[in-house]
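Hey,
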Amino acid sequence: MKLTEKELLQVTGGATLSATMINAIVKGVDIVLDIGRSLGTAIRRLGDQKTCPY
């Protein structure tokens, strides 16, 4: 089945970068950075022996 030239011009599609997608990516990066900060702080406190014994 072949499409006519008029039908081919009406074909739409493709990926778009919407505000929702950008927002989700930014939140994902924020989560990764927060995890990294928390992990770094925990490692530093363990290395400095500045943890609460209880």
